[in-house]
Amino acid sequence: MNLDDILMEAEEKMLKSEQVVVNEFANVRTGKASAGLVENIQAEVYGSMMRIRELANISSPEPRMLVIQPWDVTSLQAIEKAIQKANIGLSPVVQGKLLRLSFPELSTERRQEFVKLTKNMAEDGRVAIRHVRREAMDLLKKHGHDSGITEDEGKQAEKDLQKLTDDYIKKIDAHVVHKEKEIMTV
């Protein structure tokens, strides 16, 4: 394994950490309807657990309403139960062959709780990125001693790794700012 491989592997892991944070952010309510809030909720259908997005069409006919229309009407009750169990603060209403989810207006306190939650998610992402850096740094040091890489090359690789880490932490910070603005917009 050469220095470039170590850096590329570290970058891949950092990108995955960033994507996890972005996906978690999609599950945080912002006051407007978002399919991301319910699409990954698991419902027990046909004897196994399946995501709602695999069972139904999810649409947003109005800014503060989601409509879930199962492809198989027999899964309607299971989807309703799964949404209630998920405890996302929404009560599904069955209307014929579909479910409606109305998003109530969020209070300022609730919005601030969601901002705090996203900041905690972002911090978890930053910690994961730093963890990747630490692992890669250990590999660089171990590999540097074993393969006769010059000290300058080792130092440059460490600088590149630190720059990569800083870049991904900045990306997460930008996602936090964007999500906070989205949550606080009434």
Short note summarizing the structure:
With 186 residues, the chain is of the alpha+beta class. Helices cover 61% and strands 16% of the residues.
Tell me what you see in this structure:
- The chain is of the alpha+beta class.
- The protein has two domains: 3-26 and 107-184, Topoisomerase I, Chain A, domain 4 (Orthogonal Bundle), CATH 1.10.132.20; 35-102, Gyrase A, domain 2 (2-Layer Sandwich).
- Helix content is 61%, strand content 16%.
- It is built from five helices and six strands, in the order αββαββαββαα.
- The chain has helices at 3-26, 52-55, 76-86, 108-147, 151-184; strands at residues 42-45, 48-51, 56-62, 65-70, 93-95, 98-102.
- The strands form two sheets. A four-stranded antiparallel β-sheet has the order 3-4-6-5. It has a two-stranded antiparallel ribbon with strand order 1-2.
- A hairpin with a 2-residue loop joins strand 1 (42-45) and strand 2.
- The longest helix is centred in the last third of the chain and has 40 residues, at 108-147.
- The chain starts with a helix and ends with a helix.
- The mean pLDDT is 87.
